């Protein structure tokens, strides 16, 4: 069946829902596709401390649930589907969903977010769900009083290491450089936590274990004269090395940078295809913040309203 809407919003993180709130209030009656992870990446964290308006922090799922309700209140219709195919070569734009239904739309807001990166080791696949995870808050519970390692030196890695330290008996932070890239406050949290040990200048070569992860093969100062390979016994291996944007479906039509982030005009959400707007992490290689994604969703809806009025 082919349906038609003026505005289709793809994605249900802070950018997608905020676009729904603004477009709904503008009377556009948008359709919003929630995708694989309703509520987006925030739903796999716990407390959000830096979203304005919540001085005592807010539960991430509650925050997203409230954004969802707020968008529905203004007439956004939310569907649980995933987009499988997109055709932006003619107007209206053509979108195919996982249930076989098709939508045509005059205007699109792409807010599909970003997904966790992996190191690319075959052992990551081998032990996936048996000791390897890219989400401490989803899987940390299984490592109570156990020993875990987190890979990465950015804010995500520090946040995940600090969270895991509340559950595990010991957390190793495996950092390839001799310093952390994370913000000062996150670094301090890591250095002041006696359960966390930072292994600088260390890379992971592989994982070992019978039925699940029992340890990691590591190398210290790879390629240097004092290079040292050793095995570190661990029960869990968490990746926190950044994200890649979920833009593949759109890349035949939209300009992306070398990492795949959708490129927009200046600080607007306008893409190179008129009527197609990109908001949130899929178009943001730098900030990855809920408040910034929400703001860009608002901008995208305002631009969509202007475009449709023309
Ligand atoms: P970043 O890109 O900031 O950091 C990625 C980290 O992973 C770096 O330390 C990088 O090392 C390391 N890394 C990348 N690839 C590999 C690899 N192949 N092997 C080993 N290590 C690797 O990503 P984040 O997800 O941490 O943060 C992204 C953005 O989101 C940042 O702007 C951050 O500030 C923000 N953020 C903010 C939070 C908050 O304010 N509460 C929470 C989480 C994220 P290297 O340094 O050597 O490149």
Core attributes:
310 residues, alpha/beta, FAD/NAD(P)-binding domain, 2 domains, 7-stranded mixed sheet, 19 strands, 24% helix, 28% strand, binds NADPH dihydro-nicotinamide-adenine-dinucleotide phosphate
Overall description:
This protein has helices spanning 14-25, 60-73, 122-126, 136-139, 155-165, 184-191, 290-309; strands spanning 2-10, 31-33, 47-48, 58-59, 77-79, 83-87, 93-97, 102-110, 114-116, 132-133, 147-151, 170-174, 196-199, 202-208, 215-220, 228-233, 236-239, 243-245, 276-278. The mean pLDDT is 96. The protein is an alpha/beta fold and 310 residues long. It is built from seven helices and 19 strands. The chain folds into two domains: 2-115 and 243-309, FAD/NAD(P)-binding domain (3-Layer(bba) Sandwich); 118-239, FAD/NAD(P)-binding domain, CATH 3.50.50. Strands 1, 2, 5, 6, 7, 8 and 19 form a seven-stranded mixed beta sheet that branches. Strands 10-17-11-12-13 form a five-stranded parallel beta sheet, with helices on one face. A hairpin with a 4-residue loop joins strand 7 and strand 8. The structure holds NADPH dihydro-nicotinamide-adenine-dinucleotide phosphate (NDP). Residues 50, 119, 151-157, 159, 176-177, 181, 183, 241-243, 287-288 line the site of NADPH dihydro-nicotinamide-adenine-dinucleotide phosphate.
């Amino acid at each position: 069946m082919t349906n038609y809407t003026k505005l289709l919003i793809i994605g249900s993180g802070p950018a997608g829902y905020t676009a729904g709130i603004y477009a709904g209030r503008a009377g556009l009656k948008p359709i919003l596709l929630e995708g694989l992870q309703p509520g987006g990446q925030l739903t796999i964290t716990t407390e959000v401390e830096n979203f304005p308006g919540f001085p005592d922090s807010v539960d991430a799922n509650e925050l997203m649930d409230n954004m969802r309700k707020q968008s529905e209140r203004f007439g956004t219709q939310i569907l649980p589907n995933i987009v499988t195919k997109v055709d932006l070569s003619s107007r209206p734009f053509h979108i195919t969903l996982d249930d076989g239904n098709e939508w045509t739309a005059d205007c699109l807001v792409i807010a599909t977010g970003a997904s966790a990166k992996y190191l690319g080791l075959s052992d990551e696949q081998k032990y996936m769900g048996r000791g390897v995870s890219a989400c401490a808050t989803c899987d940390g519970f299984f490592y109570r009083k156990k020993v875990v390692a987190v890979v990465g030196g950015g804010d995500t890695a520090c946040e995940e290491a600090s969270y895991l330290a509340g559950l595990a008996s010991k957390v190793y932070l495996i950092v390839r450089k001799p310093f952390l890239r994370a913000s000062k406050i996150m670094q301090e949290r890591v250095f002041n936590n006696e359960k966390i040990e930072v292994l600088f200048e260390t890379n992971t070569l592989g994982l070992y274990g019978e039925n699940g992860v029992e340890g990691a093969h590591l190398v210290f100062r790879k390629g240097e004269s004092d290079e040292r390979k050793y095995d570190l016994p661990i029960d869990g291996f968490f990746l926190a090395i950044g994200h890649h944007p979920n833009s593949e479906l759109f890349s035949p039509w939209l300009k992306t940078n070398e990492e795949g982030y959708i490129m927009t005009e200046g600080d607007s959400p306008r893409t190179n295809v008129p009527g197609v707007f990109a908001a949130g992490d899929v178009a943001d290689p730098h900030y990855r913040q809920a408040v910034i994604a929400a703001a860009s969703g608002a901008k995208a809806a305002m631009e969509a309203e202007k475009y449709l009025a023309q």
